[in-house]
Amino acid sequence: MNEDEDVNAAPTATKTFAPEDGRRYMNPFQFGPRPIGRGSARYNDVVSMSISYITDKASLAKYIHKPFEIADEPLLTVSYSMNREVEWLAGHSYNLIAVNASVFFNGEVDKLHGGHPLVLWENLTDPILTGRENEGIPKIYADIPDHSIINGEWRVSASHFGHKIVDMKISDLEQLEEQEVEQLRKRSEGGHWMGWKYIPPTGDGPEVNHPTLFPTSGNQKAAWRGKGKIIWQHLTWEQNPTQFHIVNALHDLPVLEIRSAMVTESSSNLRPANNPPRVIR
Amino acid sequence: MNEDEDVNAAPTATKTFAPEDGRRYMNPFQFGPRPIGRGSARYNDVVSMSISYITDKASLAKYIHKPFEIADEPLLTVSYSMNREVEWLAGHSYNLIAVNASVFFNGEVDKLHGGHPLVLWENLTDPILTGRENEGIPKIYADIPDHSIINGEWRVSASHFGHKIVDMKISDLEQLEEQEVEQLRKRSEGGHWMGWKYIPPTGDGPEVNHPTLFPTSGNQKAAWRGKGKIIWQHLTWEQNPTQFHIVNALHDLPVLEIRSAMVTESSSNLRPANNPPRVIR
Amino acid sequence: MNEDEDVNAAPTATKTFAPEDGRRYMNPFQFGPRPIGRGSARYNDVVSMSISYITDKASLAKYIHKPFEIADEPLLTVSYSMNREVEWLAGHSYNLIAVNASVFFNGEVDKLHGGHPLVLWENLTDPILTGRENEGIPKIYADIPDHSIINGEWRVSASHFGHKIVDMKISDLEQLEEQEVEQLRKRSEGGHWMGWKYIPPTGDGPEVNHPTLFPTSGNQKAAWRGKGKIIWQHLTWEQNPTQFHIVNALHDLPVLEIRSAMVTESSSNLRPANNPPRVIR
Amino acid sequence: MNEDEDVNAAPTATKTFAPEDGRRYMNPFQFGPRPIGRGSARYNDVVSMSISYITDKASLAKYIHKPFEIADEPLLTVSYSMNREVEWLAGHSYNLIAVNASVFFNGEVDKLHGGHPLVLWENLTDPILTGRENEGIPKIYADIPDHSIINGEWRVSASHFGHKIVDMKISDLEQLEEQEVEQLRKRSEGGHWMGWKYIPPTGDGPEVNHPTLFPTSGNQKAAWRGKGKIIWQHLTWEQNPTQFHIVNALHDLPVLEIRSAMVTESSSNLRPANNPPRVIR
Fold first, then answer.
1. Backbone phi, psi, residue A51, to 5°
2. Is the pLDDT of residue D232 over 80?
3. How far apart are CA D259 and CA D54, in angstroms?
4. B215 pLDDT band (50/70/90 cuts)?
5. Which of B46, B82, B92 to mutate to test the interface with C (most CBs of C within 10 A)?
6. Is the ipTM of this complex over 0.90?
7. Torsion angle of alpha carbons C212, C261, A243, B22, nearest 10°?
8. CA nearest A257: which of A228, A226, A225, A224?
9. If you count Cβ atoms within 10 Å of the first and of the last residue's Cβ in chain C, which end, N or C, has fewer?
10. D161 phi and psi, to 5 degrees?
């Protein structure tokens, strides 16, 4: 190091943080971007249980925000996933239970059919923060132990603060033919998963409040059709102070007809480089 | 049901969600505001361990964003709190470890001395979401078991994904006289806790990026002075993929001189009605 | 070291494990006794919620093994304890829920009135092993989050494999006068807690199968009387395969009359040096 | 119900518990045997990581109890298993890390080569109790998150009270040919896993103290050979009061040469009906 550089060193000594253009940060952002680059968004080993059912249209509508509209019929899909070998988590695992409504996004610009997450419970905070702040997915926490399998019956449940939220069960599994799996893949590929990013204002600061689009891809490797059963609990504020109103709303949406119950194995890449989440209008 | 009601029923049937003015929501917001009104922001039983130390000024500056400036000296305070009887959580509990720098906010409008959270680890997702989205506090998750006390030594540690983040220890406790506790209270009362709310944009959507002020109050009921020790770990991405860069940054800030180590008992009201969090400029 | 000792050293090189007389071991015992000596059996900070109720005598009798007999009346006491600053656990904490019947031990040698644990759930394996193997206390595992307190109501619950076992609630607390607390202490001091040590045989190995006595002491520091409520769940094998039969048995014991509901603060020494657990006959 | 039955009913009303001959119980035994009959001992989905290494013979000998002897060479095998679809747990899951020494049982009656568990950590209390009390396996508790897989590297670690016990890593996996897997199966089939059942006395009650034999079977379905690395921690009593002496003993057994590192997929039946655990002499 020569003298000139030494002279320059002094200002360096008081160098402070400033975010760099074109890099994505999350709070705490002064430590730099989450080093997501060392792991992709690939989920290499995903096992899911999904139950779809028709509910009451007027009841469901109460939780749908324009320009979202209920699709042809008021269909809810509740999906548990055990996500393993998640690359951005250095190969660690987590579980989730998602509640999606089938919707039509009737925007001024965008007109899209797809799934709309009313709520997701996940058992790891890291993807909850990422999903809420990067993609507008309404993720919250629950304890979700890995599913159990006994006598051909698959079961899973979620709870928080020690109080049950929901039970799911799928039995009588029959494996789908490869051509049926191929149809599943086609239906998922290029699909639309549409959230709503909402961040409240602090004081007179800005609010974030707009719909988002997250593209989906078809990655099912194997699938089984079965008989599904789902039971939502009714809770008090004392039992689950931050979520009881959500659980009770879902409990009060009647299960009028189970449309499908399915177990799948898949792997997926949540973030195709050329197709990031975006605002829809 | 008579004919009139039937006529009225039709619009009701398609009533959809829209947020109401003047109410605070969090995602998933279609289920209505978090019913926080049934519990206040009171924390009735808080036990804390705090260790303050001088670190290297130039090293610390790298994590300070203008118009924040390092205070007279580069002082970090690491505080563990076991929060019990938290009213907005229906009387449940959680633990946290906060890292605060002593700063001067040299804004165009506001000129404030106070504490500035570089990062907080909490062992419950609910307050993490509230803190990030309502107050701009950079909270993330860690496993933080309740502190242990043996032979007069208090210990606590935090870890994530099974890998240790930090160890704290305070020994040789001497209780403060009531007048010293009163001084602590005075110093806290009307103090300034200043965060930075940062929410990344989704696509071409808005970004949130501004400092925040959260007033503090003095609620210490008893306090003990002791000898403190703190050990930060150095981690790899494989060990803690979402936080290793934060832990390593704190590990690399040298502990030049322990200034104080203190155990306190307190109760507090985090959200005085007349003094909500606000933007500072 | 002289030459003789050096010669003797060779066999030392192949020295193997043998338990020493007069020392207490637990498996894995080749690593030596649990170093319990560095921490006493003191529990420095215990908060408890207890609900006692009369149940049906004939129903309760099914779970009582001679020479135990039901006391004057069929009284069950369900007690939650949050144990903190547990010295043998280096000052760490754990929670338990105990179900005790009031009994008379009508042995050939010993004639004793006292409490008889039908089952204890604890949320830490270490004291479960110690209790089962050293004292004959029928401890098993459950998730038992710390109690919550809101609006003067104390609540706690336990679950395992994500399925609730029991809920307890105590409200309308009224603090006891010091002389009433003194009476509580007197009643506990020198009391009898009587278990049954049962370890099944392996092959044609020995079985352990005998009653035990564990002395109790009176350590209540403060106490509150309140209104109690307890709800036992009914579970399936699929929900809790190792414990459902226990939970269901307790569920099926009717709560005929709540006799008392109490919150206490205490500290205790579980193992007075001069009064170890022993066999009763 | 006729009159005779009515007469008989009176004694029934005071029927008490007595264990039935020929049935296996565990504490709390008054509620009847664990209903294990509704699930077999099959483990349908087991993924394991095993690392074997040569250590120092004299050092290892300190933890070997006669008539066990160290086999030809002082070989330790540390094995992590993620056990899923465990039938006796109604299809639930748990993880373990086992430390086995290669031994020769040089008994008066039995002369057997096989594996000898020095200690097993498991993250579920239910199998810990069963293993200790039914089979003499020295199981204790640890937090053992599912392994992670990233960039072809498999990692797992265990901790207790927030402090790390051990890290294992296997990389550079190469799949074994079917005939090599067949050899693995042959070596396991009819193998001997030999524990030591030790239950301390209570007062002047009996002690259980004898070796046990647990037959093993060969169930590997696929296997990969790789490069292994293992790191044992050194802990203080304050960090892990019930296990630090065990962890430190293993830490102090040098890793002189890694002999093998392997990942396997298997399913197994731990309790063949015709070959229960038994005492060896």
1. -125, 125
2. yes
3. 7
4. confident
5. B92
6. yes
7. -150
8. A228
9. N
10. 55, 25
